[in-house]
Hints:
Elements: E1 3-4, H1 6-19, E2 25-33, E3 37-45, E4 53-57, E5 60-64, H2 66-72, E6 76-82, E7 85-91, E8 95-98, E9 104-107
Parallel strand pairs: 1-6, 2-5
Antiparallel strand pairs: 2-3, 3-9, 4-5, 6-7, 8-9
Amino acid sequence: MITLTENASRKVKEMLQAENNPNMFLRVGVRPGGCSGFTYGMGWDQEIKEGDQTFFQNDIRIVVDKDSYEYIDGTEIDYKESMMGGGFSIHNPNAVASCGCGSSFRTAKAEGKAEKCDD
């Protein structure tokens, strides 16, 4: 299951309203790459694919593709505002290592495909 904090839920709802499409939902996934092996991805979608896992939280539909789910099951997504702006942060209990930017990770079972970091 993927969990959104109250702040993340509020921000996702605000962003979904701006899309002005009632069929849109939040898609969360991973792909090989990044400094540590996998990178997170979040975006809008409106097509459910075979094997997708679907969750509803705070009236938000969250969808994860079948290949990503094992790497991010149990993940909590938060949203924080700061003087430098705002952004989503991801706490993934499956990650055993991550890069400094927090958007790349690896798990105990899979290393992904690490790329050279851009400093």
